[in-house]
């Protein structure tokens, strides 16, 4: 009985440690409306001619 308990414990531990983890895919496609909105925010914050870079998630000023 001890061998059966040890085997079942080892099998359970292996099953728990080898669980599959699902992560949603990362999308790299940018939405032009989002970039336009971020561009407007960058102009309002940095001022005309002072925007260095704009992407869909952030912007940087000069």
Q: Which characteristics define this entry?
A:
62 residues, mainly alpha, two-stranded antiparallel ribbon, 2 helices, 2 strands
Could you walk me through the main structural features you see in this protein, from its secondary elements to its overall organization?
- With 62 residues, the protein is mostly helical.
- The protein is built from 2 helices and 2 strands, in the order ααββ.
- It has helices at residues 2-17, 32-46; strands spanning 51-54, 59-61.
- Strands 1-2 form a two-stranded antiparallel ribbon.
- The longest helix has 16 residues, at 2-17.
- The N and C termini lie far apart (73 Å).
- The model has no long low-confidence stretch (mean pLDDT 82).
């Amino acid at each position: 009985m001890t061998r059966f308990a040890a085997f079942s414990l080892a099998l359970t531990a292996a099953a728990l440690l080898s669980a599959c983890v699902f992560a949603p895919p990362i999308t790299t496609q940018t939405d032009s409306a989002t970039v336009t909105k971020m561009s407007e925010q960058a102009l309002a914050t940095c001022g005309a001619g002072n925007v260095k870079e704009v992407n869909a998630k952030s912007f940087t000023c000069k």
